[in-house]
Specification:
This protein has 104 residues and is mainly β. Helices cover 0% and strands 58% of the residues. The protein has one domain (27-103): Jelly Rolls (Sandwich).
């Protein structure tokens, strides 16, 4: 068992500080994202489910623009292009399947 407070945060991209929990076939990521930080458009084999805990995140997913606010979720299928911009400081949970070995 682990507590989120005991997992060290890693700055995966500028302004994106993540705490990762890895299972055999999935990864859970808790992010603290600094206002104004950008995640360029990308895609990956992992299915991703995003939950906004706090703040506002603008995302473009599969060519459609969304403003995600606290409580909003979005499922992003494998290989779907997506990008993100933190309108405010944000706290976000992402679930990935299969596991994100690149985040270990």
């Amino acid at each position: 068992m682990e507590y989120l407070k005991d997992i060290p945060a890693k700055e995966i991209r500028p302004g994106f500080f993540g705490k990762m929990v890895h299972g055999e076939s999935s990864t859970l990521a808790y992010w603290e994202i600094t206002k104004g930080s950008r995640l360029p458009e990308h895609s990956h084999l992992h299915e991703q489910i995003t939950l906004i805990l706090e703040g506002e995140m603008e995302m473009v997913i599969g060519g459609e623009k969304y403003l995600l606010t606290a409580g909003a979720t979005h499922a992003i299928p494998s290989y779907t292009p997506h990008s993100a911009y933190a309108v405010t400081d944000c706290k976000v949970i992402d679930s990935f399947a299969p596991a994100r070995d690149d985040y270990r």
